[in-house]
Amino acid sequence: MKVFAPVVVLAALVFAATAAAFTVASTDGTLTVKSGIGKIQFQGKGGVIGRLAKGQVTIKDPDPSDGTGPIVTGADAVDVLSDTTTRYRGNDIRFRIIGGRMTVTVDASGIDLSAIGSGGVRIDGRGTADDGTWALNGAPPQKIPDSSLWLALGSTPTS
Predict the structure, then answer these.
(1) Percent of the chain with pLDDT over 90
(2) Could you tell me how far CA 105 lies from the centroid of its own chain?
(3) Structure-derived torsion over alpha carbons of residues 152, 153, 154, 158, reported in degrees to the nearest 10
(4) Which domain range does residue 98 map to?
(5) pLDDT given for residue 22 in this prediction
(6) Angle CA 60–64–68, to nearest 5
């Protein structure tokens, strides 16, 4: 019985910590883009994973120590624009950046992207017959508009 009490206390602490983590995470929003053509921008805190068929992705990571930093494969050309901003150009580029503040701008065709976090999102199609679809926070997919649309992703918890 003496061993059982510490195990119960430990389990209660783990449950409380998990519940607290889910409370903070519930303020995060999600964005999904499928077969996008145009410009998609995420500016905020969270994570972005994606790929593009042809075009470029520009990643600004103001604090490389607060997450993974950008991980990009398949770029034909890499342009270092500043100490915190890099543009990757080419075909069949895959990218991810997880954790911390960032700005990720994809200007391309064949965009498949998932983002989670809080901040702002800009969606701007090229005006083709099918610029792909986007969905926010698990809502049904919508066609990518041919004019710029700004959306809030997630919310900031109040203290």
Answers:
(1) 76
(2) 10
(3) -40
(4) 29-153
(5) 39
(6) 95
Which structure tokens are listed for 113? 């992207």
Contacts of 44 (CB under 8 A, 6+ apart): 101, 102, 117, 118, 119, 120, 153, 154
How many domains is the chain built from? 1
Is residue 24 one of the residues assigned to a domain?
Answer: no
Give percent above pLDDT 70 in the chain.
81
Q: What is the pLDDT of residue 154?
A: 84
Rounded to an integer, what distance in angstroms lies between the CA atom of residue 122 and that of residue 151?
6
Terminus-to-terminus CA distance in the chain, angstroms?
41
Q: Establish if 23 belongs to a structural domain.
A: no
Q: Find the helix or strand (DSSP H, E) in which 49 lies.
A: strand 29-60
User: Does residue 56 fall inside a structural domain?
Assistant: yes
What's the pLDDT tens digit per position in 52-79?
999 999 999 999 889 889 999 999 999 9
Closest CA to 136 of 157, 108, 155: 155
Does residue 141 fall inside a structural domain? yes
Comparing C-alpha atoms, which of 57, 97, 99 is closest to residue 74?
A: 57
Angle at 124 between CA 143 and CA 103, to 5 degrees: 120
* Tokens 């702002």, located at residue: 120
